[in-house]
TrEMBL record:
Gene Ontology CC, one term: nucleus
Function, as annotated: Acts as an adapter for the XPO1/CRM1-mediated export of the 60S ribosomal subunit.
Encoding gene (name): NMD3
Organism: Astatotilapia calliptera
Protein name per the record: 60S ribosomal export protein NMD3
GO biological process: protein transport; ribosomal large subunit export from nucleus
Pfam families hit by this protein: NMD3 (PF04981), NMD_SH3 (PF21193), OB_NMD3 (PF21192)
Length: 497
């Protein structure tokens, strides 16, 4: 080490450094890089900066190209999920917006500096130089500078879209559903270039869900010479506020007209009619739109109020006799009497007794989701007038399965439009998972949905921890089409040229 010190000293003198500066180098402790042997100041990794960078890339995982959406009409940028902000080029606001796009990928590094690099204003590119630090081998702090390119894509904001829509649309279909737990209270509007196309949408909704419509039109212009009128038509569609898995309370008159079924029923499906089942007798009935609007009823609970119960005991009811004038009974369900206990009250002895139509699915120890009538304050016109002895303590809706296990075993997927995962809310993802589970549980629902086999999932031949959760069979899955499958190797090369 002493010889190396002398060699370094003479090398510094040869380069023309003054003697006092050369002597100061001898007083500074140094070590040799363990990789290339260059003298360096001591650090925990005993490696020079150049060798450290060859071993570790602290910018790994941070995207080097990101998309930013920009509205050309109002010159605003999209800040996910749905906020549009005004930002000048190379401004602090634009810098903050761009850094938010990288926030999730920079959680393991420390941002030291960020600034813009000059680019042509019409290049649709924004370049940002970032300086980051990260603790690497043996506690050494490595600093790195790199460039991230933001590609500007044009997208019309909702405000500009509404302004522009007034210039070309001739008909609008306003779809509304007055349900308290729907996040979009104002519903959805569909704009069309002709009244005929809007009428087809109205006909489709009337054949798909129970609803009622109202049509109106407004005169835009009138040519007195050719006797030509220009109207804008509006179709207002109101969908019944009853969804699948809702518990409803029918009016006595409607319950009697449906075969003397119980007033407290469960909606098991919504098609062009509302499919109801009586959990006490398995009696089923269908309510069309006209019948509903004459005798309306609402859901007593929303899905967020579902509580988890554990089955303590179950007893299948074999011989259930219905009264005079009773309607049809379901052949797909089994009537049973069960004792359940809330999973949140396992430290108590409180249990609930009820009848359920899920007797073919439930066993002792299973988890099931239901609504607690006994401890709920419900404000419903018909329920408040019922005999308290006829109101059940608990109404069970569906069996509960482990969601993480179902996601892991799901070997299929749906074709969907590109979406910004960063702007997705956790509630949006939960609703999407609920929809996928509904497809697995309802064979009739997935008949009109194209389900594709997910090649990224490894098929499992046998699963010892199968909990009986419903699955989509392999025969119902489609193979995803790609260009190489359709044209072969040479055709694929031609398509990419």
């Amino acid at each position: 080490m002493q010889i190396c010190t002398h060699n370094l000293f003479f090398k510094i003198l040869i380069k023309g450094v003054c003697l006092q500066t050369a002597i100061s180098f001898l007083t500074i402790p140094f070590v040799l890089c363990c990789t290339c042997g260059v003298p360096i100041a001591p650090n925990p990794a005993n490696m020079c900066v150049a060798c450290l960078r060859t071993q570790v890339d602290i910018s790994e995982g941070i995207p080097k190209q990101v998309t930013v959406h920009f509205c050309k009409q109002c010159e605003r940028y999209l800040q996910p999920p749905a906020t549009w902000v005004q930002c000048a080029l190379e401004s602090r606001e634009l810098l903050a917006l761009c850094l938010k796009k990288l926030k999730s990928s920079m959680s393991k590094v420390r941002l030291i500096d960020a600034g813009f690099l000059w680019t042509e204003p019409h290049s649709k590119r924004i370049k940002m130089k970032l300086t980051i630090q990260k603790e690497v081998m043996n506690g050494a702090i490595l600093q790195q500078v790199f460039v991230v390119e933001f590609v500007i894509q044009s997208q019309m904001c909702d405000d500009c879209h509404r302004v522009e829509a007034k210039d070309f649309w001739k008909a609008v279909v306003q779809v509304r559903q007055k349900v308290t737990f729907i996040e979009v209270d104002e519903g959805i509007d569909f704009y069309y270039g002709s009244k005929q196309h809007a009428q087809k949408m109205v006909d489709f909704l009337q054949c798909t869900v129970p609803c009622r419509s109202k049509a109106s039109q407004r005169l835009i212009s009138h040519d007195i010479h050719s006797n030509t009128y220009n109207y804008k038509s509006t179709f207002s569609m109101e969908i019944v506020p009853v969804c699948k898995d809702n518990v409803v309370c029918l009016s006595p008159r409607l319950a009697q007209s449906l075969g003397n079924m119980g007033q407290v029923c469960v909606c098991i499906r919504v098609t062009s009619t509302i499919h109801l089942i009586d959990p006490r007798t398995l009696q089923i009935a269908e309510v069309d739109g006209n019948t509903y609007w004459r005798n309306p009823f609402n859901g007593l609970f929303n899905p967020s109020q579902l509580e988890e119960f554990i089955v303590m005991d179950t007893d299948i009811i074999r011989d259930q006799k219905l009264g005079a004038g009773a309607g049809m009974r379901s052949n797909k369900h089994t009537l049973a009497e069960v004792w359940v206990q809330k999973t949140s009250e396992m430290n108590t002895s409180q249990q609930y007794h009820c009848r359920t139509f899920l007797g073919h699915l439930l066993n002792i120890g299973d988890l099931v989701l239901g609504f607690d009538f006994a401890n709920s304050n419900i404000n419903d016109e018909y329920l408040n007038k019922m005999n308290p002895h006829h109101v059940p303590d608990v109404v069970l809706i569906k069996k509960s399965y482990d969601r993480s296990r179902r996601v892991k075993r799901r070997n299929w997927k749906l074709q969907e439009m590109a979406r910004d995962r960063e702007g997705m809310d956790t509630d949006d993802e939960r609703q999407y998972q609920d929809f996928l589970e509904d497809l697995e549980e309802d064979e009739a629902l997935r008949k009109n949905v194209n389900i594709f086999r997910d090649a990224s999932k490894i098929p499992v031949e046998s699963d010892t921890d199968d909990d009986g959760a419903p699955r989509v069979s392999l025969a119902e899955m489609l193979e995803e089409l790609s260009l190489t499958d359709a044209t072969g190797g040479e055709g694929a090369d031609m398509m990419t040229d």
